[in-house]
Every structure is written in C-alpha cells, then in structure tokens.
Amino acid sequence: MSNQHLNSSRYEKRDKKRKTNIVLNTLIGIVLVLIFVIGSQLILGANQSEKTAKYNEQPDIQVASEENKAEEENPDTDKEENQKENSDKNTEDGSEEAKQEDTDEDMDQKEETESEIEDSFDEATITEGDPESGIAETIESSGWAPIGTSQSEPHSANYTKGSQDWNEMTKALSYATGIPESDMIIWYLGNNGGPNDAAGTISPKDQSVKYKVYITWVENEGWMPTKIEKLQ
C-alpha cells in the first residue's frame, strides 16, 4: 500500500471523528438549554405560586391588623358599654323604687286623709239620710268655727277661682271634711241663695266619697261650715 493511500485513510478517520464530536457537542448543548429552560420555568412557577398564596392571605392579615388597631385606639369601649348597662340597670331599679315610693306615699296620704275625715266628725251629729234623696248622711257640729280671714268688711263673696275668697272657702271645705286641699277635687263651689252663704261639692282625688259642704260668712272672722251632706 502506498503512502498516499495511508494518508488519505487517516484524514478521513479524523474528519469523521471531528464531525461526530460536533454532533455530540451540539446535542449536549441542546440538552443543556432544554434543562435550563425547563428548570427556569419550574422555579418561576414556584415563586409565582408562593406570591399568589401570600397575596391571598394578605386581606385576612390586614383585617386582623385593623381590628387590633381599633381595639388599641378604643381600649375603653367594653368598659363604657358595661358602665352604660350598669347605668341603665340602676336607672331601671331607681324607677322601680321611685314608683314603689310613690305608691307608698299615695297609700299613706289616703290613710291620712281618711283619718283626718274621721277626726273632723268626732264631735259631729250624724243623721242618716233618706235613700231616695241621694244623701247618705247629714253631718252637723257645734264645734265648727270660722277659719279666719285677711279680708276687710264689707265683704262681698267672690267665686272666681284663685281669688282670695275662693282660697278661703276652699280652706273651710277642707276644715269641715278633713280632706287636705292638695288631695281635694272641687266639683262645684258657688252661691247657696244668700249673699253670705255658699256651698261646695268636693271629694278626695280617689273619689272614694263625695260631700256637699254648706258654709256661711261670719263678719270679720271668715267662712264657717254649717252642714255637710255625704252623698250616695
């Protein structure tokens, strides 16, 4: 075999080997690029998922922070609400106590009125009335006296409510029956036929009894009861 033929064979082998290496290197490069691209996408996808999860959790954290902030800014809210509840309860209890006191006071006043009425009739003469007359009893007493007056003579009866004469006549009605003026209802008060005679129909506020009281004017001494009729 000639030298020329040997050289040609060696050249072809080296060329073939060189081409094979180029192909292998190219394939290796492509594989590395694919690995890099796929790895990058996986890493980026994981980061994005983590960011999304954190973002979704953020509103809850924010709400909790706002609630904590509100509690810090208003530390006395619960205390004020408790104080308000206690105040409302105390007010309600106070109202109940006040109502009970008013009831007890009304009962005491009623008992006092009834006692005064009984005392005012202790020395009186009581006559049973005719059932058809509408009068249950007629009450008269020699112990009644004029109530006094600040008016001067000559006297002329004045039946205007609130006048001095009206006030003094009201005192005479209270004196005769024992009904306090503060507990008295005046159904009628007016002239009874003469210039110095008057009559008034009254009752306590509970209207448990009704009286017609006759009074007369005593010169310089004021109005004096003369007779009481307990009405049916």
TrEMBL record:
<dbReference type="InterPro" id="IPR009988">
    <property type="entry name" value="DUF1510"/>
</dbReference>
<feature type="compositionally biased region" description="Basic and acidic residues">
    <location>
        <begin position="66"/>
        <end position="101"/>
    </location>
</feature>
<feature type="domain" description="DUF1510">
    <location>
        <begin position="140"/>
        <end position="231"/>
    </location>
</feature>
<feature type="region of interest" description="Disordered">
    <location>
        <begin position="52"/>
        <end position="131"/>
    </location>
</feature>
<keyword id="KW-0472">Membrane</keyword>
<protein>
    <submittedName>
        <fullName>DUF1510 family protein</fullName>
    </submittedName>
</protein>
<feature type="compositionally biased region" description="Polar residues">
    <location>
        <begin position="148"/>
        <end position="163"/>
    </location>
</feature>
<keyword id="KW-0812">Transmembrane</keyword>
<feature type="region of interest" description="Disordered">
    <location>
        <begin position="144"/>
        <end position="163"/>
    </location>
</feature>
<keyword id="KW-1133">Transmembrane helix</keyword>
<feature type="transmembrane region" description="Helical">
    <location>
        <begin position="21"/>
        <end position="44"/>
    </location>
</feature>
<dbReference type="Pfam" id="PF07423">
    <property type="entry name" value="DUF1510"/>
</dbReference>
<feature type="compositionally biased region" description="Acidic residues">
    <location>
        <begin position="102"/>
        <end position="122"/>
    </location>
</feature>
